[in-house]
Amino acid sequence: MPKSIYIINPQEAAPYFFSSEVLSAANIGRFPIVADLATPTVAALVPEGWSIAICDERREEVDLDTEAEVVAITGKVSQRGRMKELARAFRQRGKLVLAGGPHVSLWPDDLRGIADVLVIGEIEEVAAEIFADIEAGAAKAEYRGGKPDLRLSPRPRWDLYRFRHSMAGQVQTSRGCPFECDFCDVIQYLGRKQRWKEPAQVIDELDQLYRLGCRDVLLADDNFTVMRKRARALLEAIEAWNTLQTHGRMRFATQLSIDAARDPELLGLAVRAGLDRCFIGIETPNEEALKESLKRQNLRVDLAQEVGKIVAAGLLPLCGMIVGFDHDGPDIFDRQARFIASLPAPVIQMGMLVAPYGTPLWSRIKEEGRLDEEFCGEHNIIGSNIRPKLMSEAALKAGMRRLVNDIYDPWNWLVRVEQFADASPLNINRRGLAAFSLIEARLAASLARRGAAETAVLARLETLVRRRPDLVSQIGYSLIVYCQTRHMLDHFGLWDDRRPSPRQRAVMQA
To answer: Which residue among 254, 268, 276, 353 is least enclosed by CB atoms within 10 Å?
Structure first.
């Protein structure tokens, strides 16, 4: 009758935009930008009387010698290699190994035979059965969860997570998204019917995180504002709660779709509640590519103008961009560079189109004989599992390299930061200091060592922060992601250590 469990979120296979390897590289520390939500969520479903330990490998070493009898491993496709490695290691040590999470839910065959038990789909409705079977020594090889009512979800066990090792907590307020983008794997296992927690539940979770010292939270929704009535009710509750906090207001980030820009009243409420930044899937200025991928919410609008509305409301947009659609020709790289240069958005997540396992895109590309099944999509800045239609694979990779070097050129990045600051309204609720935090200051010092261009850019950035102290948190976050991105490009050998152009030299001399 096992009564102890060790729940692990493995390290990513490689750095990506919103991870934090650059912090270790700059001798700042080893901790994630956002705390893992899966491990405390699973911990909350473990029966009373069990001994529970959780491990986020991004901040601490996995204890291969744990005394726990059961080991549960969760993860995304970017963690698949490490998931397999850990599953094999713990089975060799005689542990009962469970594997679940997005990757197992979408591609169970990838872990079948490597873990003892697969948990496919959402765990809430099958958790009691799983643990009862384990206690009886009769665990099945596979359990399939349904679409649980989130109003019945227990509060995550954040008391088991050490927040001094992360910058932000997470609260999941809903699951699912009604849109049907063909490259999105989220709707394949969470569904298109959005399910929500009640505002009182969300406030209860925020209270817990606040007591633990957390002042920055990701509202981990696939599309926070898609159901406007529900979003308003929740934001009103958060605004009222945040106003009462006496030890500093909490800041929030979440994921929106571009159609939120059409509702300035909702955006204003979000900012008053404490929303600081938002991820938006912009994808491409190529309308034919948007039609191809069923990204209808991005059609028939001026995307740059809509991003400007979001900035004008007081939010920092984190823009997801993609190249490699079937309607992308060799000109797409210059088109994307021009489009991105027009955005008041310092943070750009650029990638090649990948067909995640189990999506409509994956099925179509496989049927067309253009699927590279050797590339599983762990990192789409270096490759894709789709053989492109209108250019060679070599041309796609070469164009991608030129594009990322243009986007993340220090001066081009600074221009977008300044465009963001010029378009941002004054926000008296953000009582920022006229200086970066210790983490951001150390990252700036590390970035300055890269060269004269970076040093000059940082000097301009410091001047900007002194002029707009209300933007310190947003500009500081942009700097963290920029430094992580440069670290990532170095890791993959994508950064061209080019001499400054005549324009760059002129700016530096000025």
So the answer is: 268
In this predicted structure, the answer to whether residue 431 has a pLDDT above a threshold of 70 is no
The predicted model gives 103-115 an average pLDDT of 95
- Residue 69 in tokens: 């009898």
* Cβ atoms of residues 10 and 86 within 8 Å: yes
Query: Tokens representing 418?
Result: 């300044």
Could you tell me the pTM of the whole model? 0.93
Fold of 168-407: TIM Barrel (3.20.20)
Tens-place pLDDT, residues 21-53: 999 998 888 889 999 999 999 999 999 999 999
Q: Nearest 10 degrees: CA dihedral of 10, 123, 155, 250?
A: 50
CATH 3.20.20.70: which residues of the chain?
168-407
Residue 262, judged by CB atoms within 10 A of its CB (0-12, 13-18, 19+), counts as exposed
Entry field: residues in the chain = 510
Beta-strand pair 51-56/70-74: unpaired
Tell me: the pLDDT tens digits for 339-378? 999 999 999 999 999 999 989 999 999 999 999 988 877 7
Whose CA is closest to 119, among 189, 14, 31? 189
Residue 214 has pLDDT above 80, yes or no: yes
Quick check: 509 pLDDT over 50? no
Candidates 3.30.450.190, 3.40.50.280, 3.40.720.10, 3.40.50.150; CATH matching 4-144: 3.40.50.280
Amino acid type, 458: L
Q: Which two tokens stand for residue 58?
A: 């991004």
Name the strand (E) or helix (H) holding 503.
helix 502-509
**H/E stretch holding 321:** strand 316-323
Contact 427, 468 (CB under 8 A): no
Q: Which residue is associated with the tokens 């070493």?
A: 61
Residues of the chain with CATH 3.40.50.280: 4-144
* Residue that has been written with the tokens 């041309």 in this structure: 395
Instruction: Report yes or no: 258 and 282 within 8 Å, Cβ to Cβ.
Output: yes
Contacts of residue 108, defined as CB under 8 A and 6 or more positions apart, other chains included, come to 118, 120, 142
3-state secondary structure of 251: strand
CA angle 418, 419, 424 (to 5 degrees): 95
